[in-house]
Design brief:
The chain is of the alpha/beta class. It is built from ten helices and five strands, in the order E-H-E-H-E-H-E-H-E-H-H-H-H-H-H. The chain has a five-stranded parallel β-sheet, sandwiched between helices. The chain folds into two domains: 125 residues, Response regulator (Rossmann fold); 69 residues, Arc Repressor Mutant, subunit A. The N and C termini lie far apart (42 Å).
Length: 225
Amino acid sequence: MTGATATRVLLADDQELVRAGLRMMVDSAPDLTVVAEASTGRQAIKLARQARADVVLMDIRMPDLDGLAATRQITADESLAGVKILILTTFEVDEYVFEALRAGASGFLGKGSRPDVLIEAIRTVARGDALLSPAATQGLITRFLTLQDRAPEAAPGLLEVLTEREREIVALVATGMSNAEIADHLTLSPLTVKTHANHAMTKLGARDRAQLVVLAYQAGLAGGQ
């Protein structure tokens, strides 16, 4: 597959050795190509635009501007609307992950993940799906509730725009279930589930499934899962 049609990946990490390892793994996939490397958050923002990246592998802890602030700036930039951000973290769930998802990241992945897991993760966020495993999602809920020190405040009227079926599907998305798993659980087709999830995202103004999960937490829809 040529670079013109491959998913274009930007690596953002302040450790050169980490970037070298990531580049080797990403470039081993025929449908992925590393187009640039950044060692700071500011560089990541600049290069996301210049290199026309599709996916940014973003470390959180970087000098100059951290990955969290860089994520916010990239997702707030309309000219970078198609760029997906995959957060790289030392631990699967740490204190920054929820904020990263709320800032617009499409998911997160541990730095110690196997090459095949990393490659599939990039493909997942590139096609617009959230990368939230059930274990990570449950950890995320626990972390969120701990940070809040109480149940999440329901956003007034947030879910009133959704149909009963859409609310049901959003609640299941928030548990980390895939469309196929939700379809099996509700005896629906995966396409029907995807359609309902997409409608919910549009109505709630969610960038992707990861933000849909965040909104579900904030509305109290996922807290009891």
